[in-house]
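Tokens help. One example:
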Amino acid sequence: MKWSSSLRKWSRTIHRDVSFFFSGMVLIYAISGIVMNHRDSINPNYSIERREYRISQPLPGKEGMTREQVIQLLQPLGEADHYTKFYFPRPDEMKVFLKGGSNLVVNVRTGQAVYESVSRRWFLGSMARLHYNPGRWWTYFADAFAVGLILITLTGFLMMKGSKGLWGRGGIELVAGILVPLLFLFFF
């Protein structure tokens, strides 16, 4: 067996095995990376739902509002057990804070209310957290992942020969793949 054939055979084996081992990590980084790129339209950590409605009963102002009355306003929302506190940022506007980050804003004069329900996106948030290097052990695994990606790349170069390999179409694709990020880095 020629030296180059043996090198290609080992490259295929290493490429395949390292690719399978790190494929889960590639998917996690790819999915969470897309979400992180679009943080202006999707929050990876929280789901926020906003609901506007009108309270029909008359409400007291700042001086007359009690904790019990506020908790009564939270009953239809299923948030009575999550009450923490309330205050009036403006004379006619009351803001109620709830456990977990949810809140209710009520115009006590008009009865207009806005309820914002905040809930954690535990799975997507956890995946996005990995981009921020959450600990020392993760650093070691992320470094191993980076070395694995280098191995996958280098063995990919060596697997194909001829016009589809590094000195043919593969080389052109490699140069294009290097130029695109450089163009964005320096010109956009």
User: Anything to note?
Assistant: The beta strands are 46-54, 83-90, 93-98, 103-107, 112-120. The helical segments are 3-37, 67-74, 122-129, 136-159, 169-187.
